[in-house]
Amino acid sequence: MDKALTQTIHRALTRHANSQESLVEMLREINAELGYLSAETLGGLADALKLPRSQVLSVASFYSMLDLEPRGTHVIKLCQDAPCHVAGGQEIWETLERELGISFGATTPDGKWTLLTTSCIGACAVGPVMMVDDDIYGNLTPERVREILAQVADQDRAGGRT
Amino acid sequence: MIRAHVLISGDALSLSRGAEETRLAIEAELSFLGLDKEVLVSYTSQVERTDELPMVMVFPEGIRYGSVHPEDGAYIVQEHLYKGRIVEHLRLPPEILSGHIVHIPGKLGALYAQKRVVLRRAGLIDPTSIEDYIAHDGYFALGKALTEMQSADVLQAVKDSGLQGRGGAGFPTGLKWSFAVNQPGEKYIVCNADESEPGTFKDRLILEGDPHAVLEGMALAGYACGAAQGWIYIRGEYVQARERLEHAIKQAEEYGLLGDNIMETGFSFHIHVHAGAGAYVCGEETALLESLEGKRGTPRIRPPYPTVRGFRDQPTLVNNVETLANVPAIILNGSDWFRSIGTHTSPGTKVYTMLGDVNITGLIEVPMGITLREVIEIYGGGVKNGKAFKCAQTGGASGSIIPAALLDVPMDFASMQAQGASLGSGALLVCDEDTDVVDLAYVLVRFFATESCGKCVPCRVGSAQMLEALERLRKGYAKPADLQRLEEIATHVQETSFCGLGQAAPVPILTGLRFFRAEFEARVQA
User: Fold this and answer.
1) N or C: at which end does chain A have fewer Cβ atoms within 10 angstroms?
2) In this structure, are residues B188 and B229 in contact, taking their beta carbons and an 8 Å threshold?
3) Each residue of B347-359: pLDDT tens digit?
């Protein structure tokens, strides 16, 4: 295991006093730091907590906010529940697939965008709603979606991100 | 000396609509006019309506301005705070606080009286300030309980109040508490803030708008049940609410209102925050406890109930955010006061999130027993675009589909149940005449199929099969046998699923069929 990974795991363990009860929170923190949870990461954490690797994998695969594979630079999560659906979510779904040229669950070949669905994020009064990384965008229309995608891409160019 | 207080809505939605820029403009104008020493500016959580954000409130007058853009903010400072003239064109209609709603004639544009118990401070105080909370009777109930009441008196007051669980089930809160009281072992109080029902975000707004009320409610529960430790299990997605809570806990500890030896009475109560990681089923109380212990959030068999064997196998009381937020007011004002609100079988108020095809969406708190028609007409400003009401979906995905025939049924736990419907978790998704009920049922069942934890067969396999059948109906190639089979599976899933999630999964289909059978039948191929 490389040193950076060991350190990341070690820091999470220290923050939570090596408590098995904090497994879910540690996984979230490591996920946030590394982008996803590799088999190596899960194994390292399991060994440190003296838990079976199978148990750590079963926990990591259970929660939707934990990623078991690498995601694109930007992760889009569209709410697909009833309040957003009633407010026109289907059209937004189609717009996103068309604009990015991928279907839900996939990542663009250039590794820039990952398109996912999410259950309710509690912003229903302004549905349809999507999250781009940590930002919530509401009252979506197809035009608004195109604007947001362009805006994020612009920021990347300005910030030197690929 | 501070002569006026300007509150700006600072929730995530307001911020996304430029509340920060509005605040900066207001502060710049105040300092330009030399008013910055006498006018205090702060953020609050605006929880009332979402169509006029960012909102600015000026106290002591209590004037509320809506959709305040930066240039409007500067103008309000010049006119209202400098020249003393209210800016009428930006002003929102006043909120009339009249108590009980018996009958309010329809009037356009005004926001009518709500009966506020849980949300009485939300939007009026700065939720990051414990001083604001204390100035509005905060921690008075805890002080009263610890100095004037025995723990049994607190329990009795909650029992007498008739408070019922606000998470959806409506179980008598006092009774639940008494189950925990009589158990041996180290006890825990757990606040269920894993609000994940689609369309429901009342708990988030309570936590963001008045976090201390929930903490005080937990401490009172701890005192009544003999617990010294509390956990708040909050949805992983609720980042701001979590920060508010952690900040509030720290403040309360500094003031000696939480932690060891509270108010020097010898009572100690510690609260910890634990964030989830995205799983609807964790709102089920035994699944929540599994998750709190760092495991997969799959439900446990009941009995034993958590009040007997819960967190760490110890007696654990699990209560919803809104339930706990009611407790301080009950202790402070007495159970008779609480019983004077709402209906005989369901005292108190209920917080709803109103969504869908209504003119005004957002959060309301109204007395139990108000009808759906009143809610839609008075608070929702009627159905959008003058269309006709078709149905409403209550209580998130596990709620019922309610047809127009039930518009005048009082909304309380017992009355709704008598009609075969459920009050649920507090969402009101209003659908107009254009709504396709089969499509709506499909979307609701899809949610359950996605969120099934996979532990039991009826829910895991049944929800997938129901979804397939609905898909065939939706696309128009279902045979009469498919509809019959859908109904059979739905009944089986409801009767045999392990936990409440699975038992609720078929509810959209069953209530949809009960009230709109013809629409399902019309989709079947002859």
Assistant:
1) C
2) yes
3) 999 998 888 898 8
Per-state percent for chain A, helix, strand, coil, to nearest 5: 50, 10, 35
Q: What ipTM describes this predicted complex?
A: 0.89
> Quick one: pLDDT band at residue A122, thresholds 50, 70, 90?
confident
- CB-count exposure of residue B296 (10 Å: 0-12, 13-18, 19+): buried
> In chain A, which residue's Cα lies nearest the Cα of B239?
A134
CA angle B215, B353, B280 (to 5 degrees): 70
Contacts of A119 in chain B (CB under 8 A): 196, 198, 278, 280, 447, 450-451
What are the structural domain ranges in chain B? 4-90, 130-339, 349-432, 437-522
d(CA B181, CA B186): 11
What CATH number should be reported for the domain whose range is B4-90?
A: 3.40.30.10
Residues of A with CB under 8 A from a CB of B: 19-25, 27-28, 55, 58-59, 62-66, 80-83, 85-87, 119-127, 134-138
Q: Is the Cβ–Cβ distance between B496 and B425 less than 8 Å?
A: no
Cβ <8 Å between B195 and A126? no
CATH for A74-159, options being 3.30.70.890, 3.40.50.880, 2.30.30.100, 3.40.30.10? 3.40.30.10
Supply the pTM of this predicted model: 0.83
